[in-house]
């Protein structure tokens, strides 16, 4: 089988597939038509399948306890549950990422026209650094990742994008699944975006009251993370050099924070995005939409986007109507795809060149 190493896409993956003499030739091969050949060992199993959130891809039994098959998961980053006799199994012979509040196997199938976005060769690369910072909100030490551009110079000052993941993920999502570092490197090399820091916090952070859950993060961001970054890095601290964006849950966190504090943020991005809480929740932050002049003055870019196959697309259309009723101007885009990283990579690829521009 052709050995494919997903490099920094995977949280865990051995490019040499362990010991074939002991474990057999297990793994996967990406085929030219976008399908994937998979071969895994499961001696004694009665059924082996890939469960793509209810869409089943059965493998067939082969010799020597092997199961194999060619499956069409779709293009882009695709999570799935490996089912052996109905039980979830995490295979060490397939890439492992983090999503759905757990480690999960995935495959990253190239998308035609987007191959260069994450290509590593021939361009300079930035760095991603992990930091621990104390939180006055949770009473614990929290974690964040910070992308710095290839030309980073501590004697310069930079704008900052605070970029959030979705429910069931963590601060690593935008690096591993989203390829934000690779995408930013490429856009910078092509002169399409401004040098900036990209800060990714853990939006699932919790205090002692676990029922507060992800609703704590907006407070953590304002009280702890922004001050930590501004004390640690040479950043510009006015609103026109501070942006926030997020996907799914992170999009609502972005809406809540930026519309409540327009004095702090000049740019906002909602990917698979929610202006409002999708379940019961306080939507007082939407009051800013009632003042069209103040809203337009507050944001140079307010970006909303979603995949046309997203399970929440009707909610997106409802919020289209809300925006139209309020008469405010927002950038609105749709992409082919669902509630997945294929769409979110397109969102960040389009959003990064829009922010921190003079015009």
How would you describe this protein?
The protein is built from eight helices and 18 strands. By secondary structure, it is an alpha/beta fold. The protein has an eight-stranded mixed sheet with strand order 11-12-14-13-15-16-17-18, sandwiched between helices. Strands 3, 4, 7, 8, 9 and 10 form a six-stranded antiparallel sheet that branches. Strands 1-2-6-5 form a four-stranded antiparallel sheet, with no helix packed on it. β9 and β10 form a beta hairpin.
SSE layout and pairing:
Elements (H helix, E strand, L loop, with lengths): L19 H4 L3 E4 L5 E6 L6 E5 L2 E4 L1 E2 L4 E6 L4 E9 L2 E3 L6 E4 L2 E8 L17 E8 L6 E8 L11 E5 L8 H4 L3 H10 L7 E5 L15 H16 L9 E6 L1 H12 L6 E5 L20 H7 L2 E7 L5 H14 L4 E5 L5 H11 L8
Parallel strand pairs: 13-14, 13-15, 15-16, 16-17, 17-18
Antiparallel strand pairs: 1-2, 2-6, 3-4, 3-7, 5-6, 7-8, 7-10, 9-10, 11-12, 12-14
Low-confidence stretches: none
Order of helices and strands: HEEEEEEEEEEEEEHHEHEHEHEHEH
Number of helices: 8
**Distance, first to last CA:** 51 Å
Q: Please give the order of strands in the largest beta sheet.
A: 11-12-14-13-15-16-17-18
Dominant shape: globular
How many β-strands, per DSSP?
18
* CA radius of gyration: 21 Å
